[in-house]
Amino acid sequence: MNTSPLPAMALEAAQSAEAARQQIARCEGAFAELGERLRQRPPRFVVTCARGSSDHAASYGKYLIETTLGRAVASVGPSVASVYNTRGLDLRESLFVAVSQSGRSPDLLRLTEAARAGGALVIGFVNNEDSPLFSLCDIGLPLCAGPEQSVAATKSYILSGLAFLQLVAHWSGEAGLRDAVSLLPEALEAARALDWWPALERLTGAHNLFVLGRGMGLGAALEMALKFKETCRLHAEAFSTAEVSHGPLALVGRGFPVLALGQEDGSAEGTRSVVRRMVELGADVRSVLAVPGAEPCPWSRVCRAPSRRCARCRASTCRFTGWRWRAEWTRTSPRTCAR
After folding, report:
1. What is the pTM of this model?
2. What are the pLDDT digits (tens) for 157-205?
3. Is-contact 206 234, C-beta < 8 A?
4. Contact status, residue 99 vs residue 50, Cβ threshold 8 Å
């Protein structure tokens, strides 16, 4: 195991369990009221507005809302308002969710203004409660991530995922999801204890990497690939396991590094099939799901929610444990700047 001092990014990520407890304690009542409102007057559809890591968290929220509540979710590009000055954006009877760490991005503010004018109910998952975006929302819900000083933010990403989980738990009224919310801080503490170093030692000389995910795990893959770029100067690309075989697979050969995320839901067998194919091609694969020939990623039974919802809770936990992988490699890669 590597015993070097942890960088700021890992230290901040290690605070996520306590930050999650704070969000649950502070925002549970507001989420319960919002959930009741949405049950009484269900929106026709949901729109998310975010950039970067916040948009990756919104990808998780999209799948959670669509599979649990049957409401279509679309990510609308902020440029629709900030660059193209679209007039009369019709968002009547919709729920508009803005997600941001700073709450100050001009393009997010423009699109949020357009959403209000277009008739949407506007809610915001925002870390900075003194920001213009928080004030602009009909309902502002703080992430409670606290200050973030590292170049690659972690807590706000994790807490944005929790906010979507709280939203869906209270909107749907499903006991299994409410249990997943209450158990998440414990799951984050268990994830923090996982040791990824044995799986990472051979990757310090890598130059390219595929990160795979599907469904509720796709946002995790997108976020991890971004953090590999930011912190390790590694050309990492995220793909859905439903898409990677249509072209990108041609890049995979002997020794090509692949990190395959997955959760035990309807996507599991398709993910295993893709991983098996990459193993056959000689790729150096690390997989969350058990696949012969692939090196298992560190994992633990961090979800004690009822089994019917265990896959969703574990999918959320999968995205939350990514910081450990990134942190371990950040402190070992010779190409990494101290952050």
Report:
1. 0.90
2. 999 999 999 999 999 999 999 999 999 999 888 888 877 777 777 778 8
3. yes
4. yes
